[in-house]
Fold each of these.
Amino acid sequence: MSDLFSSPVLRIDQPRRVPSAKSQYKVFDAGGVLVARAEEREVSLRRQAWRAVMLDGGGQRTVQVEDARGTPVLAIERPKNARSTWVSTPDGVLHGSIRQDRYQWLYQLLNAAEQPVGRLEGNRLARKFKVLDTAGTHVAQVDKKWKGAATELLTTADRYAVTFFHSPPDPLRILVIAAPIALDLILYEGKSVPDVFA
């Protein structure tokens, strides 16, 4: 049985919802089995309405990731208007961070001591990202998938895929697992309108 931390392929799907209101994701293995759910907790209806009406996606967001049994396993936090995220255990122990490096298609993967453990190198559309370890080995791939013109143009629902070519050690593996949600929080949850060319 595969799970969030052992599956070589993950599919991350963000359901359609009111733009900016509340971050939610479902994570599946290659066979389509649900291995995790992720969503913001304790976001009041009033706050969701404010975000939706004002198209305010740039505020602080903390997404809690739970396995298929509902057990919390990760927390992914993006500070207000930041181009970085922090990845922690549910009780707040830091695994590391994912930080934009100059351009929206380049990111550093850092451990809790802020030492590099890898990097994301994306194409200029920020849709396809190679995951490289510190030796430059292509250990995984993170891609934003096309969901169709209507979905891309009219909603902020997104779909991602993660494929591991090697089994990198932690915290790199954990940061790669968190990368699609982190990228979505940095690049797409903060956008004011859906952008098919983002």
Note: The chain has a mean pLDDT of 83.
Amino acid sequence: MSSENSSVTKGGELPSGEAKAEQESKPERLFKVAFDLPEETASWVPASAELLWTGKTSVKMEVQVRNTPFYVKGIAFADIVRVRADHERREFVFEEFVAESGHSTIRIILKDDKVQEVADSLLRSFDCSWEIDSTGYLWAIDVPPIVDYSLLKAELLRIANDGRIGIEEAALSEVHRERPVSPKSDT
């Protein structure tokens, strides 16, 4: 899944079949990066930074995001970001955005306890993955590049218009921004 598995050995030769199999069977080592939150977010979130899982890339101090953020805006699953070591805080800290992955991050807040099954079913039908915060009401949703976001958005807006959820588009990839919202069909 990641480009690290296709690396070249010291001598410039590709790894042997056995070495490659061993390399691919090792689980990817992930580490957390702190994304500082703006003051207006920090006032209602019980933290000043959100920690996201990341994986190494072939470029020093650039990492690939491995989960969907609950609070950070402008970042989606698999995006590439540059980090810096903050020795005082003893953690890696987000420095700048490098490249988008094509994934988008949207968030919903459940306003009705009975809408959970509806949201679950809808997201599964679009092959989205999501994380749910400890309250059970805030969902951070990863929308893969292959999803027709205009159709998903139309369904989410239908539920939102009923007052059952709130929606936030936290990071829309170019792929999802380009597709216009599909007109409603009467058939």
Note: The first helix runs from residue 17 to 25.
